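B., you asked whether I could sanity-check this one before it goes into the benchmark set. Here's the sequence:
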Amino acid sequence: MRSHHPRRSTAALTGTVVATGVVAAGAALVGAPDLFGLAGHRPFVWTVPFRVPVGAGLAGAAVVAGAVGTRWRRVLPSAAALALVAAGSVGTTLARGTAAGELPAARPGDVTVLAANVLKAQADPAGLARLAVDGGADVVSLPESDQALADDVAARIGSATGTPVQVFWARDLGGGGYGTALLVSQSLGPYRTTGQLAGGVKAVVTAEPVSGEGPVLAAAHTAAPVPDLLGAWAVEVKAVADWCANTPGSILAGDLNATLDHPGLHLRGSCVDAGEQTGTGARGTWPAKYPAAVGATIDHALADGNAWRAVGSSVRDIPGSDHRALLSRWRPVRSS
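And here's what the prediction gave me:
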């Protein structure tokens, strides 16, 4: 006859509870570091953009733990915890949208914006101009451009559409021959530059309509969250989000080197994200050599939601770049 040992049973139960808690906490930190305020810190700053691969890894661990649990049932609660966190990570991704997207037909008053990191001016200017023209872009943001590429793309767009394109370009603040270009079609009227945002590494070019009628525009590039630039990255990403929140009528687009889970890009005020509003908010824009479903969504289009509503967005390939491009169409709220 088997004897019953209450103390042993209690100890086993306690051990199971503790082990499950440790596994659940670890899985939550890996799968959702933003919930704990850690998405801006190492190593989570580099893992949070890749929710799908992380979720897949946690799901795989849950399967293994579940298999082990068929023999040792004490492992099953840990398997369930891993599966729950994996489902949450993937669910957040699916809620933001992983589709390639599309643009609805443009209406009078709409503003269409193309954001395309051109990889140190290596992207094909003919392909960029064709993408802008086919997408009906009124505004083009070209991070990692030089002046020559910006002028070339603007000339090609102007030739194809019959409408001149203004070019505003600023060299990266950290030095080098590259910077950020903001191209504005004369269909929006004449614009004048209003300078750059605070930072210290990359360039964020802003411009406003001379007449005072129309969107205030910005082409943005921020420092990458590499070890030596984490401080600059945090400052620059926050400056971009703050500008969007504090600038009435604003539209901003470019390579922000951050996802909506990073603390600097937590949208505030009336600022809205085109991808999140239109179902492409989790489609990877970098690196382009991997499937978009597993990439990081670090190229964005933001706007003052009191003035503009995103009615469509589309993630497209760019010949010669390591990023995908983002087309977004914005409609004045007053005409929605």
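One thing to flag: The radius of gyration is 23 Å. Otherwise nothing jumped out at me.
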